[in-house]
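Second opinion, please. Pick holes in both lines of this record:
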Amino acid sequence: MNIAKKTALTSFFLAGTLLLTSCGLGAAASSGEAAISAESVDGTDLPTGVEIDFWHIQATIYGEAITEMVQEFNATNEWGIVVNESFKGSYQELNQAVRAALAGGGAPDVSMAYENDVLEYVANDVIVPLDSYLESDNFGVSEDDLGDLVDGVLARQRVDAYDGHTLSWPHGNSSMGLYYNADLFAEAGIAEPPVDWDEFLAQARQLKETTGLAYAAMGPAKNAVFYNMLRSKGITPYDTGAATTEFTSRESIESLELLSQLFTEELVYTAADTEQEFTNERTATEIGTTARTSTKIDQIGDKFDWSVALTPQETDEPITQLFGGNHVILASADPEQELAAWLFMRWFADTDAQSIYAARTGYSPAVKSALDTPLLSTNYQENPQKADAFENVFVNAQIMPPTAAGNAIDDMVTGIVEEVVLGWVTPQEAAERMDAEATRLLQSAPQN
């Protein structure tokens, strides 16, 4: 990392905690313009031989895919850019590592980040808007390429909270789906996955009565399942602009009541590794990320017939959770360094790279054209569950409303939902607490 970059960033952080005091995109962007113009990008010296650091959360087969892709980029890019990739643990650990590095030096040029993380970085003016790069004649992205991006993936790069800017670019994406064991379903007399949450409950009871097995295992963090239930009922959990929530709505309380009922009747249970419960046939379903289709293919083999479907829905417009971090550029005083970072990010989101990533992992491709590549089309033919995950689930996925308070809200909701399933609080009490605490967090969060 160059000295100019270190000097520019260290003043924004104290003791690893974000100082949420700034509300814009930096002095250069506060007027609604990107930090530099597209013309300036085109006039930047080519980043010949530049080295950039890339931090990510990918391990196991996902980390192996990252290594393969970085090696491909390093060997083939025309500018001689060298990417040094580094695994930093979970998203939370990555965010903590970035904050610590920004305070003490050694921050990466490119990092994976969820929208909530991006807004934290925005609040401290340490992120680079991508608009000038996208619009560049020499290094930009064409309208056809923008149209190639899956709708939900493109939308998350330009959410309302970004104040008209594009602040991130795709890495890998997944969605929340319902894995189901078709053999256990048949044994219990269940023909198809549940279409709504009433049928989910009815099938869970039917399966328990006929096989003695639980319908599903849920992880310790149940906020995503709860959010998914609300959104499937047409409810957005909170409004970041108005700083209000729907946690006390009828749909929210119904969802909490259903979760309580499922656990009380022992139709579902909590497990640290829900995938192991499903792949070892201790449950008939798993609500989880479609990124795990590849690992399920490896673990299940030919033990039983299975697939993945959309989670239960109760509106005419299906929606499920969209997961996966994006790529962001952390600010530098060196235009060549930032341009090199952008060129790597642009390549990573393009057709060939996304086909590699989707074929090697359970991630769905960010661009539709990747489906037509020989590599991915063959992979999907050989692994129909991955094709089902894209066609049945991923195309309906959208992110939660991003906010700098999002991580804190998620932690709070996780804790209170757990109290509900343990029977410590009633759904009504839980709803009122979530509403009060989330409202406070939203009101205190910086706004763009």
Summary: The two ends are 29 Å apart (CA to CA). The chain has a mean pLDDT of 89.
